[in-house]
Amino acid sequence: GQQLNQSPQSMFIQEGEDVSMNCTSSSIFNTWLWYKQDPGEGPVLLIALYKAGELTSNGRLTAQFGITRKDSFLNISASIPSDVGIYFCAGRSAGANNLFFGTGTRLTVIP
Amino acid sequence: EAGVAQSPRYKIIEKRQSVAFWCNPISGHATLYWYQQILGQGPKLLIQFQNNGVVDDSQLPKDRFSAERLKGVDSTLKIQPAKLEDSAVYLCASSLFRGGNEKLFFGSGTQLSVL
Predict the structure, then answer these.
(1) Which residue of B has its CA nearest to A106?
(2) pLDDT, averaged in runs of 10, over chain B (115 residues)
(3) Between chains, do A97 and B48 touch, taking CB under 8 Å as contact?
(4) CA–CA min distance B3, chain A (Å)
(5) Which residues have CB under 8 Å from A96's CB, separation 6+?
(6) Are A101 and B43 in contact (CB under 8 A)?
(7) What's the pLDDT tens digit per position in A22-71?
(8) Which of B23, B31, B54, B105 is least surrounded by CB atoms within 10 angstroms?
(9) Contact criterion met (CB < 8 Å) for B104 and A30
(10) Residue B113: its chain A contacts at CB < 8 A?
(11) Given an 8 Å threshold on Cβ–Cβ distance, is A31 in contact with B102?
């Protein structure tokens, strides 16, 4: 099946710092979604991307659909304590039913 | 707008017992998904419904797992009999469109512990 490699696995940053994480796939995707999951909750959709090269922002979050269509990036600017959580990328290839999820990036923000 | 509702939130059972989970998707969402999330991993698709029909159940262990979506709204996922490795969070998600421009919205999940 599809493989989504998400990196880094975990990050410890100071409040106010910027964060970058990425996701790469073994095949071409036509949809990339980024989710945040808090403990004991389901994933919450942050940003959706549908076109190669697309750059989309949601407040302090910015995500990009890679030109090769095999990767995506999520940036968080000026991190705050409530950014703590696990961030998942998810992607779907053309004609596929399944949305594949990455293994997650665990973000810790130190006040 | 109400989100995806799931119950129960937690369930503890012994191996070989049966368990059922319930999901009520966002109103008007035709597509419904059940995902299994094992601790430390991303969600993995078990089954996908479009209205009351199954679109994809290729990852569903059909010898013990079953799911239905009668009337194309609520859905139930059942495990019978449960094994230790079924301990996980079971997430239900729904979306308005299938395919292009699709956005999945998740419920809070049911955390299952099999002892």
Answers:
(1) B40
(2) 91 97 94 94 93 91 95 94 97 81 90 97
(3) yes
(4) 11
(5) none
(6) yes
(7) 999 988 999 999 999 998 899 999 999 999 999 999 999 999 999 999 99
(8) B54
(9) no
(10) none
(11) yes
